[in-house]
Amino acid sequence: MMLKGKTVLITGGSKGIGYGIAAACLEKDMNVVISGRKVSDLKQAITELKKISDHITYAVADVRNLADQEKSVEKAIATFGSLDVLIANAGVGHFAPIETMTSELWKDTIDINLTGVFNSVKAGLSEIEKSQGYIITMASLAGTNFFASGTAYNASKFGLVGFTQALMLDVRKKGIKVTTIMPGSVATHFNNHTPGEGDAWKIQPEDIGQIVVDLLSMPERTLPSKIEVRPSIPK
Ligand SMILES: NC(=O)c1ccc[n+]([C@@H]2O[C@H](COP(=O)([O-])OP(=O)(O)OC[C@H]3O[C@@H](n4cnc5c(N)ncnc54)[C@H](OP(=O)(O)O)[C@@H]3O)[C@@H](O)[C@H]2O)c1
Question: Which residues of the chain fall short of a pLDDT of 50?
Answer without folding.
Answer: none
